[in-house]
Amino acid sequence: MTLMGATRSLLAAACGVLVMLTPALPTPALPTPATAVHASGSSQFTAAPQAFVLPAPPPPLILTSFSAPPTRYGAGHRGVDLAAAVGARVLAAGSGVVVFAGVLAGRGVISVQHAGGLRTTYEPVAAQVRAGDLVTSGQPIGTVQGGHPACSPASCLHWGARLPDRVYLDPMSLLRRWEVRLLPWGGR
After folding, report:
1. Whole-prediction pTM value?
2. Interior CA angle at 145 toward 139 and 147, to 5°?
3. CA-to-CA distance for 157 and 117, rounded, in angstroms?
4. Is residue 124 packed enough to be buried (19+ CB in 10 Å), middle (13-18) or exposed (0-12)?
């Protein structure tokens, strides 16, 4: 077998290996001025690194993406709408303190304050927590309710993220990136 033939055989074998999705090294993507879009300038955000998780049942199906408003009070979509059935568990995306859990504008809303001032919001939800409760990343905090107008006739969870200076960012940027790794293959 020639060197070229051996290389092709190795390449063919590599294509048959198991591909495993594993989280990248624990370096969660925290908001940076580049991810925080605001018409009046950039935002400075410093927080203790923490792992954030998807608040809705996986896999994530985004029904409406984040769209930063051009100005502080301009039109935009200040979060993402994740497909979720009515009654599905809602998880705290990160550890923090519940600062609001109640009805706002006719919908159930939960807001969690995280280290450094980042605040995440979840709606429409039936809260299982109260203001002042400490929550950990991945802890159930409520269940999805129907009634989010952007998801009609389906149901969804609206998940938002806001920096201390009221600049909104794409909450999906809080999640760790996934990395594909090839594992050694023992057979031929």
Report:
1. 0.68
2. 145
3. 22
4. buried
Strands 89-91 and 80-83: unpaired
Question: How far is it, in rounded angstroms, from Cα 128 to Cα 141?
Answer: 5
The tokens of 52 are what?
């954030």
pLDDT in tens, the chain (188 residues): 444 343 333 333 333 322 222 233 233 333 333 333 333 344 444 443 568 999 998 888 888 888 888 887 777 778 899 999 999 999 999 999 999 999 998 999 999 999 989 999 999 999 999 999 999 999 999 999 987 666 766 788 999 999 888 888 899 989 876 566 677 877 65
**114 and 120 Cβ atoms separated by less than 8 Å:** yes
